[in-house]
Amino acid sequence: MSQPRVGRRAFITGAALAGAASAVEAQTPVAAAAPPPAKPAATKPGPTGYAFLKPAEAAFVEALSAHMVPADELTADGVALGVPVYIDRALAGGWGKGDRLYMQGPWPTGTPNQGYQLPLTPADLFRSGVQQANAWCRSTYGRTFDRLAADKKEAFLLALSRGQVRFAAGPPAGEVFDLIYGLVMEGLFADPLYGGNRDKAAWAMIGFPGVMANNAHNVETHSDGRRFVARPVSIADMS
Description:
The protein has helices at 4-22, 55-68, 83-92, 122-141, 150-161, 173-189, 201-206, 216-221, 235-238. By secondary structure, the protein is mostly helical. Helix 3 (83-92) crosses helix 6 (173-189) and helix 4 (122-141) packs across helix 6 (173-189). The longest helix is centred in the middle third of the chain and has 20 residues, at 122-141.
């Protein structure tokens, strides 16, 4: 993520591998793929309201989304693609509230292979993490994350990802990075039904057909590095 485009390539690689893995069991070949839909000529405006995010958190998420998913010749930026909307809905819903997490303790420090070990719901971890991230940025750079120049945003995120940031209070910085990075990735590549990946632009960018399960033949045919284009189909398209 040393440059915005590196982050984009990392997203593309991870999503392409995930799509290939999910299609291994499907065996039905399909006809030649149709060309992807044309990219919208104008960038759509960002969301006007959130169910979970407070103003300072919304500013952080929108700045994070636009920085990690910059606009280029392939797609608009992360805000226009709906990544903040996805994050807001996820944190406001049952997942964010920890409905399926064991929250009774005890809470000793776990090993890396034990997974998440904090007495915080994802929403609580996010809220505390954003507060601490902004406090660190103010202490280090004199401004909150959303008001930093691009190079300072990059420096902070790199330091956070490498374990070089220590928060004065609140949750471990590493857990915060894992959470926000995962949410941005999900918001970029999840089904548009959940608020992100607007117009299925991220799927079209990587040639992912969406919810169609018969993609194994295409994975095999285009495993030599050739670009594969498809007209993605979402859950809403099937209803």
